[in-house]
Design goal:
By secondary structure, this protein is of the alpha+beta class. The chain is built from four helices and five strands. The strands form two sheets. It has a three-stranded antiparallel β-sheet with strand order 2-1-5. A two-stranded antiparallel sheet has the order 3-4. Helix 1 (2-33) runs antiparallel to helix 4. The protein is rod-shaped, with a radius of gyration of 33 Å.
Length: 153
């Protein structure tokens, strides 16, 4: 009977090591999922030669490039500058370029390296604490060890 308890104790140690190895995967997943990233948004301003200024995203002006920073339809911008509306496209095809577009990028950090480190350390501590509690419960149930000191009763 004593031999069976030794085998069970060794089996529990192997299972514990397997869970520790699984924990490395959990920590790696936390590290990857909390990777820092940021994104940019843009503000656009069209300044016409006649002094008019406007934001092309607030007008019905088509985008010719759908990745930021956007580019806008030349004929509609000329029409907006000259006639005050983007709908006179046919008349603006003979106009010279009477505007220039400026854009300003704004960076937004969603997560930082600090957040990634904090989340990973919290994951390590919580996972280890849960694993240790389970280990102590198993030792208490199967080997009769004291839950807090792990001494035999």
């Amino acid at each position: 009977m004593k031999r069976a308890w030794e085998i069970l104790g060794r089996l529990l140690k192997v299972v514990y090591v397997l869970f520790l190895l699984f924990g490395i995967g959990v920590v790696w997943y936390i590290w990857i999922s909390y990777a820092p990233y940021s994104y940019e948004t843009y503000n656009y301003l069209v300044q016409c030669d006649n002094g008019k200024r406007f934001d092309p995203t607030s007008k019905p002006i088509d985008k010719t490039n759908f990745t930021e920073p956007y580019t806008f339809d030349d004929l509609q911008l000329k029409s907006e500058c000259e006639y005050g509306t983007a709908y006179y496209v046919g008349w603006s095809s003979k106009l010279a370029k009477n505007y220039f577009v400026t854009n300003q990028a704004h960076s937004h950090a969603v997560r930082t390296v600090n957040d990634q480190i904090k989340a990973t350390l919290l994951g390590v501590v919580v996972y280890y604490m849960l694993l240790e509690i389970v280990r102590r419960i198993i030792l208490y149930i199967f080997l009769g060890r004291n839950f807090l000191t792990l001494k035999k009763k």
